[in-house]
Amino acid sequence: MRHPHAWAAEEAAINGYPPLCQVVLDDWLLRFSGSARRTANSATPLREPQGDLNAVVTTAEALYTAQGLPTIFRIPSFLDPAIDASLVARGYTDEGESCIIEGPIAPIIAAAAPFGGGGAARLETQPTDDWFAAMARLQGQQPGFHAFYRRIVGSVALPAAFASLAVDGAPVALAYGVIHRGMLCFESVVTDVQHRRKGLSRRVLAALAGWAQRQGVDMATLQVEASNTPGRALYHSIGMATELHRYHYRRAPG
Questions:
Q1: Residue 13: left if φ>0, alpha if ψ -120 to 50, beta else—which one?
Q2: pLDDT by residue (tens digit) across 80-108?
């Protein structure tokens, strides 16, 4: 059964990490973004697909091949299982299972209170060069990926805030958030490996949650890999305990 917030969370995720190029094809959005991550280089549904899937797949394969990219479909768990089965029959392989979760804003803010020592998280309405540089360092981004990441994040059109928390003058925890349909969508949550388990991510997320709350937002959502046990434990501990649905990717053979 599909959660009533499912499609809104899907839209927030698409708009929070938008593709550099796109093609709308029937009920699907085909996204093209060079060497960026799969999220911005895959076909994802905009609504429950009703059209000719074979025609969509054939066209998608031609377009992704022309861009020098693999053909990848992103499949939310609430879609008709026949869609996934059709891709399996074509030899598409399964990868990247992730969870879409949500929770109320107030507990996210409250969960950071015991970790209030040190400086406050800094918020910007636009990503700065320093923020991008820190994100590249903490995520271990390769130069090619970083160039696409800057273009993607810099193109976000929704109301957004970019948070960073420094220790001894160096940013060690970052994230950003966008607001869509009264929902805060967290993106790119990362903490320096040497500073984990100190509540820094909680403080960054709380800062973004406080910003969103001042805009009248009362719910937050994010995507987390199903295998990311520490990340899921963190989000559960701050009140993001409702799993709306999951999704996985199907990659074309070869």
A1: alpha
A2: 999 999 999 999 999 999 999 999 999 99
Tokens of 112: 């950071």
Superfamily of domain 101-244: Gcn5-related N-acetyltransferase (GNAT) (3.40.630.30)
Q: Which residue has the tokens 């937002």?
A: 217
Cβ-contact 196, 155 below 8 angstroms: no
Q: Which of 58, 16, 61, 9 is nearest to 40 (CA)?
A: 16
Using CA atoms, how far apart are residues 113 and 98, in angstroms rounded to an integer? 29
Which residue, 224, 209, 223, 221, is CA-closest to 183? 221
Determine the pLDDT at residue 1.
Answer: 82
The pLDDT of residue 131 is: 98
Please give the Cα distance from 59 to 65 (Å, whole number): 10
Residue 7 has pLDDT above 70, yes or no: yes
Which candidate, 83, 67, 81, places its Cα nearest to that of 21?
67
In whole angstroms, how far apart are CA 53 and each of 67, 80, 86, 249? 21, 12, 8, 16
